[in-house]
């Protein structure tokens, strides 16, 4: 727990399940009021909110497609209306692979969809929240190990989008420094989530996990712990950086 976070307000995009859920719950443990955004995972988002409230925290689930500007503007307004203004923390967690496709197999619509969910969403949420963000606020983006190593088979579009998130993080850290807003990102490797349940065969997961220095897959809590650290004053002199969370699979 980080005492300096108590009483602050956070918005977590894609917060209903897996890594987003873990981030929302971990922030709440430190006394943060959390808006749990979701697009289609209503049941999971409501369960996340219920778990937070049951422990005495404040949380609300808000549906919005973060690839659409008008919906993002509404999401931010509803967050402030429900939990308070200003907003102190934004976690740009929403994202996805969508499908494994080689470049020759992609059409323009697929490329655009991957860029929208992973990169455009970061732009839209950041732009929408800045007028309501407190000076000295924090933005934490979700990049990926794929930004460093190009990703697994059929993930060129995903890797490219996450590489752009990494670069955008650095640019935002400079741009927002006059307001004291810090911007960092985390770059998870193989994490035990629905993402890999859907897109990565068990044999591949076992092989990759065996190659990590940690000898295992990561868990959502491993990522959430790093995000909450970056949101707290414990990381006050960290800005424009990526925390690599891959168990020692890849060193930068």
Short characterization:
By secondary structure, the protein is an alpha/beta fold.
Write the topology of this structure.
Elements: E1 9-12, H1 18-29, E2 33-38, H2 42-54, E3 59-63, H3 69-83, E4 87-92, H4 108-129, E5 133-142, H5 146-149, H6 156-175, E6 182-188, H7 194-199, H8 202-211, H9 220-231, E7 242-245
Parallel strand pairs: 1-2, 1-4, 2-3, 4-5, 5-6, 6-7
What would you note in describing this structure?
It contains 9 helices and 7 strands; from the N terminus they run E-H-E-H-E-H-E-H-E-H-H-E-H-H-H-E. It is 45% helix and 17% strand. Helix 1 packs parallel to helix 2 and helix 3 runs parallel beside helix 4. The relative contact order is 0.15. It has a 7-stranded parallel sheet, with helices on both faces. Strand 4, helix 4 and strand 5 form a beta-alpha-beta unit. It is an alpha/beta fold and 252 residues long. It has one domain: NAD(P)-binding Rossmann-like Domain (Rossmann fold, 3-Layer(aba) Sandwich). The two termini are 28 Å apart.
Give the tags.
252 residues, alpha/beta, globular, 7 strands, 45% helix, seven-stranded parallel beta sheet, Rossmann fold
Summing up helix and strand content along with how strands pair, one would put the structural category as: alpha/beta
Q: Helix coverage percent of residues?
A: 40-55%
CATH topology: Rossmann fold
Number of domains: 1
- Bin the strand percentage: 15-25%
Secondary structure tally: strands: 7
Radius of gyration: 17 Å
Question: Going by CATH, what is the homologous superfamily?
Answer: NAD(P)-binding Rossmann-like Domain
Largest sheet: 7 strands, parallel
Morphology: globular
Return residue spans where pLDDT drops below 50 for at least 5 consecutive residues: none
Q: List the total number of helices.
A: 9
